[in-house]
Amino acid sequence: MKGRDNMIKKKEDTGKEGQVHSAEETAVNEQPAPDADSNKIPKEDFPIVGIGASAGGLAAFEAFFSAMPNDTNPGMAFVLVQHLDPNHKSLLTDLIGRYTRMPVYEIKDGMVVQPDCVYVIPPNHDMIFQDGKLQLLEPSEPRGHRLPIDIFFRSLAQSKQELAIGIILSGTGSDGTLGVRAIKAEGGMVMTQTPESSEYDGMPRSAIATGLVDYPLPPVEMPAQLIAYVTKAFGKRPYSIPSTEDAMKNIFSLLRTQTGHDFSHYKQNTINRRIERRMAVQNIQSVDEYVRYLEQKPAEVEALFSDLLIGVTSFFRNPTAFETLQKKLIPDLFTNRRADSAIRIWVAGCSTGEEAYSIGILLQEQMEMLKKNFKVQIFATDIDSRAIGEARSGVYPASISIDISPERLDRFFTQDSGGDYRIRKSIRDMVVFSEQDIIKDPPFSKLDMLSCRNVLIYMDRELQKKLIPLFHYALNPGGFLFLGPSETLGEFDNLFDMLDRKSKIYLKKYVDSGHPPMGIFNSPGLESRTRETKRSSDKALVEIKPQMRELTEQIILQNYAPVSVLVNQHGDILYLHGRTGMYLEPAPGEAGMNILKMAREGLRQELATGLYKVAVNKKPVFYPGLRVKTNGDFTTVNLTLRPVAADPDAASGPDLFLVTFEKPPEGEQSKTGKTTAIGAGEGAFESAMEDDVRILELKRELQVKEEHLKASNEELETSNEELKSSNEEMQSINEELQSTNEELETSKEELQSVNEELATVNTELQNKVTDLSQAINDMNNLLGGTGIGTIFVDHQLRILRFTPVVTQIINLIPTDVGRPVGHIVSNLLGYDRLVIDIKEVLDNLIPKDIEVQTQDGSWYLLRIRPYRTLENVIKGAVITFTEISEMKRAREILKESEVMHRLAVVVQDASDAITLQDMEGHILAWNPKAENMYGWSEAEALKMNISSLVPASRKEGELVTLKKLSHSEVMEPYRTQRLAEDGRIMDVWLTATSLVNKDNEIYAIATTEREIKPENREKEIKE
């Protein structure tokens, strides 16, 4: 995703984040896909439902679309974004098309989105929605680090706003969570699959953890709720709430009571839209009914509060404004700035921290350009505690690369193995995040810059009038105010000078704004809010030890070299000069060199008080005439504490102080001793003087005690602040440890991401395998049912598979798969060219048809064809054997019948009487000439025996002739007599032929008979 900031057009007028890209594809159910090049864009008033899923998503898609009503059109478009294997062609489009009557398209770049259609993202692409079209992007992140659901949801939210609907289904990881936030920020609606119904519950749980999900449901229940929500929210647009003033006051009161925040001064239109959306979610018709629902359901108050929070933000939001900020404002913050001074900035309404970190990046770049380091304090506040928690973590999804240049990503972020970006510690340490309501909580003060962008636009004029003077008070003279592109100062332009009108950057005028308008706050203690909460601990002192002796001796020489001790502000002893035993002694317990612990009685309180004073005021502190208890006696000493002015090279080191113990002059000592030695037996005058001295001592001691108590209180406050700072540091360390733990878990997330892609592919392949198994079963039954023997061979003529029927022709068993077909013994007679013929077909691609016969006499048609794939590639040959035995016999019978037909024609047209009789003399055939010659019809003749035509005198001779014919003896034509129907005896010439079957047996006798006319008889007699 790196480098996409030039590919995606930002909408600077609104400052909203998230962009969109496009797509298109042909329909599964053969409906024409929308034209990607068409300029026709549908109306933008229909909702678009983005559905994100990962591993286990196919089953969820099936359940979702199976539950969609088929009798009505939903009136919305559905865009499916799933984690797919980039190297595998997706079958999702085909599979989804089985469960919905809506047309399903695989997306192509530039596809126009139409209602009542389903669009499926293709593999190895990211996608955005923009200008009514789906646009595809090449993913710049490696596999396992991509977040296509977040990218699409974010763009959908920007383009469709409240018409954007997001649904998160089964999957691992957290993809879609950032998109859920974007959709909710724009007033859209979000559903998630319940974790219990998910095969993989990572994505649903991550989305639910945001607290922004409207409906956690099983997929089968989602369509009904979705249609009900769309009908309620968008069925009668434009839609407005007929609200009453009392009802709205009750809603504000419930919000203030439960959350502590007052929304009564937010703009009414914004409040109405959010309440309207919550009413649609809960299917509530009136505001009064919704008020009652809020009173009964505290959870709904929290849900409404979350909806009212404006969480739209991004890094370098409104790039033009940040470019102006970088060029005009940031350099001025460092002009004439001392190295020990702090740059203080307040980012009000920081949301999840992107803007605060963006300003920190600009400051860091400026310091790197100046080659100087300054102390930077950025106070980032928001009323959303959940957003503040995310901001503190400093972890953002990979989709932020849309808003940040690759150079800044490399310099200021580290990317973990899960694809998320973590802000570098140098920037994180600049920012202190805290929960704060600018409406009621005291502001930060002494600021060099205040950024409050896109917050005032949601507040009414009355509230803006209170906040602008507050901002003026919080800024130092010459401080900068940075507002959103749609925000103005209103009537307070006299407090600021305009620096850049387009980017809304203002400069505080040098006028006295007095005290802040505290009337809008509910809690006191402005100064306690502005006090720094983090102090730096002392650095190691190793580097300055070589200088300690020189510094100590120099100060001692300037002050007559009394007994002295060099300490830091905590009282740690760094160097000793002279004999200090009269004033210091080792403290009981663990050995340590701290002057406050080692001081003798009479010095401890003054040392503690004085050390605090000299550290704060940087001026010497003098305590004269202190009585120090030494070995049962008292010694008078003057105590002096002085700050040590180190040389310029040690300017960055710790503060040092010289403690000097100096005995008073002899006169003062004797006077003091004399005063204390006054006895009770002397006169009243001396007693009175003693009482006065004692009173003075008690007063001085009381004053010292008071000063010590005051110092102790101040030290206690300092210690409390240090403990608070330490606690924050510990929290920061804990957050870093948690981040480290998250980094250790990213490898697991990456594996889960790859696993979910594999699970998706596996599910698709399982469905494909089921289809293929069914197709194979159908094909096997088809081949087995046709009775055609088939052999598949490859280019090397190795057997790939065969059907059972072919084993009757070629001796094949299952283990023969993989053997050359030429090695197999066949049952074919006279055919041994199988291998040669197959090679010829593979060489010239011309099919061959050959009739072959098996040893059992069966005939087959052998066909050899090239084996072609769907891509028209020759992968071998197909050999089929189709039995044609019946066809062969039918062909022979047909041939015989044709001969017989021709003979029948001859017989029918012959001029001689032709008959056919079996061996018992039954007439089998009787042609027309026989009818004409003998007078019997064919029907009558077929019932007769041939003996009926033989005269009695000729019967014996005909019997002899018949015996000769039964022995296949060849007989010449001979003359005989026959009886006619009318009783006439006719002389005929007769030719008899015996008919023989395949077994060479005589089964019939055919005769040809011609009548001898009288004239022919006379001629024969004469001859």
Largest sheet, order of strands side by side? 3-5-2-1-8-9-10
Task: Using the alpha-carbon principal axes, give the shape.
Answer: elongated
Per DSSP, what share of the residues sits in E-state strands of 2 or more residues? 15-25%
Proportion in helices: 25-40%
Total beta strands: 36
Oligomer: single chain
* End-to-end distance: 127 Å
What's the average pLDDT?
Answer: 78
Q: What is the radius of gyration computed over CA atoms, rounded to a whole number of angstroms? A: 55 Å
Largest sheet: 7 strands, parallel
Number of helices: 28
* Model regions low in confidence, pLDDT < 50 over at least 5 residues: 1-31, 35-41, 513-546, 648-652, 670-682
SS content category: alpha/beta
